[in-house]
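ok so dumb question maybe but i'm new to this and my supervisor (M.) told me to 'just get the structure for Arginine N-succinyltransferase' and walked off. so i did the thing. is this what she meant?? sequence i used:
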Amino acid sequence: MIVRPVRSSDLPALIALARSTGTGLTTLPANEERLAHRVGWAEKTFRGEAGRGDADYLFVLEDDDGRVVGISAIAGAVGLREPWYNFRVGLTVSASQELNIYREIPTLFLANDLTGNSELCSLFLHADFRSGLNGRMLAKARLLFIAEFPQLFGNKIIAEMRGMSDDKGRSPFWESLGRHFFKMEFSQADYLTGVGNKAFIAELMPKFPLYTCFLSEDARAVIGQVHPDTEPALSMLKSEGFSYQGYVDIFDAGPAVECETGKIRAIRDSQALVLAIGTPGDDATPFLIHNRKREDCRITAAPARFAAGTLVVDPLTAKRLQLNAGDQVRAVALSAARESK
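this is what came out, is it supposed to look like this??
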């Protein structure tokens, strides 16, 4: 398996992946025209022809037979071309000494506070390949790419997590709040944001703070909670240093997590090394390894070991990276010490 930049020839496979994601992945809509445009723009991005506000680094996971089975991406900076909305969860205090009443009420403020940060997005892996190192490699390859090209990204990295919805795509937060202002199904609003139509959010969403006590009990309970299918991704990001700082999605109330770029474990601990080809050994640690290229980027995960300033990998790993002994690589242990293997 290798992670590499998307190509135009991948479009049919991406359409198939998009159709299998279900509701909740707004940055990968099953819209052929939109995806074709995105792939073309991603190719320009990897060639260095896009500014940070327009940059879209779209990667695919490819098996050794050339099949595309997963996708992930990095947005260079959110909100610099299209508005970027979140709810900031705050607190309003009401008190009356005369009546001996004191109330703390969580409040939702429509905010653009995360504008300008780089975003990890569009992570999806085909169900048949959710085993072994595949999921972690697809998700964390982006971090190693950022480590190699830090000048292309912001000082903070964010990731929006999918919020709670049932097996029919019904979101309790949407039913209690969004539906009253947008008069459409959650899936339709989710789709419209995915294809770039975000103006309606500013036009229809109230600008004043929203008191959560007016929401249903089910809606209040899911604020800042992730969908069960997203819990492994959240756990992985937390192990890398990401944390929830009180921002949630305006549609399903899923949490946004964030971390200063230089403090992300895979970025902070990565090293530039010389590649050596040999036998890593039975007790070798799985490493994430990048060929240090941009447009021809290739990243894989494989057992490796340090030896006299080199990183020793087996011949198949070197072949996947399209490298020879003596070439430069950037590498980091695939998992944080506290992350379950």
